[in-house]
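Below is how a single chain appears once it has passed through the pipeline. First comes the sequence as given, then the structure the pipeline wrote out for it. We keep one example in the README because the format questions we get most often are answered faster by looking than by reading.
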Amino acid sequence: MVAMLTLGEALGVAATTPGEPLGTGSAMRFSTAGAEATVAIGMSRLGHTAVWVGVVGDDEVGRCVIRDLRREGVNADLVRVTGDATTGFMLRDHRTPDHVGVSYYRTGSAGAQLCGHDVDAAFHRTGDIGLVHLTGITPMLSGAARGAVHRALELARERAATVSLDVNYRRALGDTSAARAELEAMLPYVDILFIGEDELFLLTHETEPENAARFMVTLGPREVVVKLGERGAYALDADGATAREDGLPVTVIDVIGAGDSFAAGYLAAWSENRPLTERLRWANACAACTVGTRGDWEGLPSRAELPMRARVGAIIR
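Resulting structure:
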């Protein structure tokens, strides 16, 4: 069985060193990024099979995306390469470790060409799938990408695969009302919902994590996980079980990628039927490892590192 199949957009990234503003003309570091790709890499590093589905351009950035995924053990055989568009790109200005300015160059990019046919081909060529992971980013990229996400929801239900959704609200992709409408359309198909404390307003008037989770579990998901940043996270399932875990102490180097790393840790533990508390511990450890290093996914821990202090003082028992 494939533990997880995910789909979305991946991009090239050029970033300044944290603490060095772009305007000073400092040296930059190139890498690749993408919310779903980061989750796939995290799952792979923790010992679970992961398939990433997307579209990249026939260019050097697209080749880097595929190279990074494969090097990390993610199955990228279903990535479509197109000569009709270039791979998206983003520029990050790390003025301080926790203040990052981001400029996207993705209009008409290859990633926005993801469509239902890509999803059909992926499900056809993939055997049993335990989990389908989606984010709120992909359906906002284009009409075709939205169709791909909803086709994935339909096929996941047909396959009896669990669906996880990370809200991942991006204001640059659409206003609040559009994002809310899209999330509300997806929620009836979702089993595990990840949402940041600063995203609660999209789905509820409740501001306290516990009250918000109790409301959102009535909308369809069987589990709701509220990410609280450095304060950790809170989880509730439809049977009433709850868990809350504090964040781990870490010197922050780069905050980008923390939420996706969190989701990877949680879903890896979920795939092993570990209890809510342990899922949150794995999630917090992965997030802490990421914010303690540069890059979206480069600092994610391996399975061997989880039981150790993993450079941030985290101990997972």
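The mean pLDDT is 92.

See the next section for the split statistics.
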